[in-house]
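Incident log, support desk, overnight shift.

02:14 A customer reports that sequence design results differ from what the structure should imply. Their input is reproduced verbatim below. On-call engineer (initials T.W.) acknowledged and began investigating.
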């Protein structure tokens, strides 16, 4: 989870973690968040190994753990909105979308990519462990209920603003 396949891999993972992770950390608290993150990463590895136990390509990256953060985010903040860049032919458009839609499209893309890779020599084709993303996301959906703070623990914390993802960032 702490190695990456290159600078772009690292930057992409850190961008998603920066956008979505801070709200989850705020809700869980630092210690719970770290345990949750590591548990989602372990679940991601377990899912990839379960689907492709004979893979000879090593897995690197935090994508599975970050997918767990996305699962928690979509569960805790289904009404949050994100500003995302949408390329339409040669035009670039910024569109505000519900986070649940943005994350659902991402998840189904990972699932579809993983399913289409079934039967290939290695499911880690092209250097992407799609089922690790799926496993981490599903773990995040399941584990969020164990790690989230109850209303009595939040001490007035109300979650992220309704308008944008954390700090007004865009995806």
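02:41 Re-run completed on a clean worker. Output:
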């Amino acid at each position: 989870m702490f190695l990456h396949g290159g600078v772009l891999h690292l930057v992409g993972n850190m961008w998603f973690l920066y956008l979505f992770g801070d709200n989850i950390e705020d809700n869980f608290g630092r210690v719970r968040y770290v345990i949750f993150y590591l548990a989602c990463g372990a679940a991601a590895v377990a899912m990839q190994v379960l689907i492709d136990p004979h893979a000879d390509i090593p897995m690197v990256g935090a994508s599975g753990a970050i997918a767990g953060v996305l699962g928690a985010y979509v569960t805790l903040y289904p009404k949050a909105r994100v500003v995302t860049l949408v390329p339409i032919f040669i035009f670039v458009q910024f569109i505000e979308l519900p986070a649940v839609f943005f994350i659902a499209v991402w998840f189904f893309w990972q699932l579809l990519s993983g399913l289409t890779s079934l039967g290939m020599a290695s499911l880690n084709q092209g250097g992407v462990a799609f089922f690790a993303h799926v496993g981490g996301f599903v773990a995040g959906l399941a584990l969020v209920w164990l790690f989230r703070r109850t209303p009595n623990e939040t001490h007035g914390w109300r979650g992220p603003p309704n308008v944008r993802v954390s700090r007004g960032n865009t995806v």
